[in-house]
Amino acid sequence: MPLGASTFYILLALADRERHGAEIASEVEEATGGETRLMPGALYRYLKQMLADGWIEEYEGGDADARKRYYRLTPRGKRVAQAEARRLDDVVRMARSRRLLPGT
Amino acid sequence: MNLLLRLALRACPADFRREYRDSIAQDVRSRGLSAAAAAADVLWQGTLMRLENFWRDVVLGARSLAKAPIFAVVAIVTIALATGVNVAAFSILKGVLLDPLPYAHADRLVFISEVRQREDQTNIDYPDARDMGRRSTTLAGIAVETSARGALTGMGKPVELHGWYVGGDYFNVLHAKPQIGRFIAPSDMGRRNIVISSELWHSRFEGSPAVLGRRVRIDDRLYTIVGVAPPRLLNPGPGFMASADYWVPIDPRRGGTDWRGNYAFWAIASLRPGVSVAQARADLARVMTGLANEYPNFDRGYGVRVQRLYDVLVAPMRMLVLMLYGAAILVLLIAAANIGNLLLARAAARERDLAVRSALGATRTRLALALIAETGIVSFAGLLAGIALSALLLHVIDGYLATFGQAYGMNMMVPGWNRVAIDLPVLCYGIAVTLLFTICTGVLPAYTVNASARAGRFAKRARLGSALAVCEIVLAFAVLSMAGLLLHGFVKLERTQVGFDEAHTYAVQIDLPASRRYAGTDAVLHFYARAAQAIRALPGVAAASEALTAGLGSSSGTNYSFTHPVGENGIGEQNNVEFNSVSPRFFSTLGIPPLAGRLFSSGDTTRSQPVAIVSKSFAAQHFGGTLGALGRFVSIGETSSGSFPLRRIVGVVGDIRHSLADAPAPEVYVPFSQVTFPGSIVVRTRGQDPHLKSDIAGAIARIDPLLPAPQIMSFSLMHSLDDAVTRISTGVFFGLAAAALLLALAGIYGVVAYSVERRTHEFGIRMSLGARASGIALHVLREAIVLAAIGIAIGTVLAAFAARAMGEMLYETSPLDAPTYIAAAALLIAAVAASSLVPAMRAMRVEPAAALRYE
Predict the structure, then answer these.
(1) Which of A26, A41, A67 sits opposite B24 (nearest CB)?
(2) Which of B343, B356, B461, B819 fits as disulfide partner to B445, beta carbons 3.0 to 4.6 Å?
(3) What pLDDT is stored for residue B88 in this prediction?
């Protein structure tokens, strides 16, 4: 089942390392070349939902800013992200084979 | 934090707000976002979250409802019943009473009739109407109408059409505009021009504009079509409206238009702008006085009555419709009490679940919303089912009314009924009712969620439940009594003797076209004699006889005035009387008993002495008794050219009723052979004959194939049609009473069952102290009956008030008719006892040991 775009971007942003809220937002903005801009309301709404779904977990940042909340992927979240990535990969492959995209 | 942002955060659910307020604020600062954009985003996201929560509650509600199907079904059925009944009742209220008349400037339309003291006449004669129109200063126009019927021939199979003879400014008075062509004008009087209805235009003339100027043959005369009426133009009559197929000018040769005293017409007028009804009354009274002075023989002693058209049309229905609506509201209240009880019980069942959610941090609002979501699902389903039910109810009532209306040969209908439909305003009413319902009954249990001590809560709930049950009994008793009173009156009406033997008798109405074939009285006489003979020859027919009009529901339409001479040649006073022209076998065919003198015979012809037979009440009224009438003289009718011959009274017969509601009327009969008009044949059969109608139609067709099929109706059917309105309203009230009773019983059952469950512990103690199981059961029953008795006592007062308001709808029944109330009370108590039986028996089966342990 396809994930919402913003949800997937957030999972991607957390794929390599844990981040805190604002970081995630700027990461997503950068990765999409400025197209997807996660406003704070939307961001935390998605984060709350993903927390409830068990795809990410939250912990207090031990270092500089004790108030900042850090998020990281759970194993489940990682699986979900991988599944989506694989699905997108299949789609790209199909597009390539039908000459919609260049390359093989 | 920025004010905008703070406000926007209020849109978010409380838990989200608490959790992420600071993070969001920080985010905005560190990213340097504009406060306005951030606030807009938060506002939007907050709304989305609340909607998600609501949807989740709805899904949860649906799931928990599915786990308690009985509750869901009972609740939905209750709401459906209450909503359905109310939507139907409101639809009728709106269409009949509230909607304005379907004419432009309807508030200026008045109905004018000539009345004598103590009479309730609605008619008028043509010359007086014409003179009133000419001489009044307050009327913008006056229109005269009388019903018409004719056979449309020459266009395929002959078909019977209903129409109107109109005179004066008919279409202008109604402010109607023709679809194409023009309307009948006063200058058309006597000409053979015709306006056809829009429906006829489409069904027979394909809606083509080329119809103007075409000739049609109606009633064997050629008319030229000069116009087409607007769609659905309805004609007003006293207490009803009628649709029509065509309109023709009044024909002076047939209509008796120069005949003062021939009250064959209805008059409608339009007031001049700015004129009040009171002014018109004064003005027309003045005109009438003038007419009475000019024509003392006809108009002396008559006054003129001017009423708003709305009052004449709708007034007869007003009380009935209001009562129906009132009863529907009562059913709604009972249902509300039931739903309230149901939801209380439901809240108790979900108590643990709600307590857990509360402990997990759900606010009171969230919990209330959760319950309301559940109630909402039930209400919505109930609303949909209710609307379907109301459509069904309206359809059924419509069917009954249609039969009733068409039987009178005028396509009559209850005024405004054509607007009774489930349209947008009615739907909004239904939605509003359901919403109110839901909120009132759903909020109640939501706020008992956080009540205090458990025992106290139970007791509070039990008391509330009992109070609600008593209220339901009160209302149910009121509706039951009203239905009972109506039934009592209806039974009396049904049993009313009509004065002749209705079993196996039929009236066959055959209208002859006014063509050359039937121009002279001899031809008409000959035709009817042949028709009667042919019908007599049919197997299964015991007797057949010619008559001008036939019994119930059809008086001669016109009240003929007769003079009652003092002495043989003196001119006496004028009176109105029922009139019929019959052949000798008429009385034996219908079973009207001869009381004195003789009946008509074949010796009574146009060449022999004019004779008459009168009814018993006529003889009593004018000649002091049955025997006193024999040998005296009456004269029927007067025209401006002179009076009809004096007739010798040769016999007296029993009275018959022409309408169930009226007393037996004085009536004068003349021989069909001496006064011949096209009319009907009354038939008596030996037994049930399923082929009778087709046999008769065949016999007539063999005599003259160009005639359309005759209208054949059984007298017993006419009898039931005459009281159709009473019948329908009694039936509807019974339906409402049944619904009310059912709901009240469900309510009692719920309350008693709940009480039994709550008191299991108490019963256990009692039984262990020696109480017998049957004693416990009786105790439970007795409590239920006490509730019922209280409800009935209060309900009697309410019912008495309601019944008094219904007064005029009750046929010869007092609003305080004791047997009815007692019967209703007995029925209710028996029903309550029956519905408490199951919980009572359950109480009996309580095991003391287990009960003592249960807390």
Answers:
(1) A41
(2) B343
(3) 93
B36 touches chain A (CB under 8 A): no
Minimal-distance CA residue of chain B relative to A43: B24
In angstroms, the separation between the Cα of residue A82 and the nearest Cα of chain B is 27
Exposure string for B625-644, b = 16+ CB within 10 A, e = fewer: ebeebbebbbbbbbeeeeeb
Cα distances from B839 to residues B343, B458, B836, in angstroms, run 19, 18, 6
**What pLDDT does residue B85 have?**
92
- CA dist B737 and B759 (Å) reads 33
Phi-psi region of A54 (alpha: psi -120 to 50; beta: other; left: phi over 0): left
The answer to whether the beta carbons of residues B683 and B699 sit under 8 Å apart is: no
pLDDT value of residue B445: 61
Strand partners, B412: B242
User: Pick from B19, B31, B37: which is nearest to A22 by CB?
Assistant: B31
Q: ipTM strictly over 0.85?
A: yes
Put simply, the answer to whether B27 touches A21 (Cβ < 8 Å) is yes
Greater pLDDT, A69 or B719: A69
Which residues, 6 or more positions from B67, have their beta carbon under 8 angstroms from its beta carbon? none
Task: Give the count of beta carbons closer than 10 Å to the beta carbon of residue B117.
Answer: 7
Q: For B416-463, what is each residue's pLDDT tens digit?
A: 887 888 889 999 999 998 888 777 776 666 565 555 445 566 677 777
- On whether any CB of chain A is under 8 Å from the CB of B50, the answer is no
User: CB contact, 8 Å: A5 with chain B?
Assistant: no
User: Using the beta-carbon criterion (under 8 Å), do B30 and A45 form an inter-chain contact?
Assistant: no
